[in-house]
Amino acid sequence: MAGITADKTLDTSGLNCPLPVLKTKKALEDLQGGQILEVISTDPGSKADIPAFCQRTGNELLETVEEEGKYIFYIRKKA
Q1: What CATH code is carried by the domain that includes residue 17?
Q2: pTM of the prediction?
């Protein structure tokens, strides 16, 4: 996505709730504070789950993009 460069990409395509959120949580553990994780999901439930996860954990959801049946989230890990 223009303007956002991810430090790591996590593709959870084909996985259903709660796996995209669980894998997002695990992937964020490997990043330093301030780094950006790009999460790709095909689960429509992730449209609600990922923002709720970010709000609950204090990580910043920078952008959500929907294209061709995929949901792409850009999450900045809290410092």
Answers
A1: 3.30.110.40
A2: 0.94
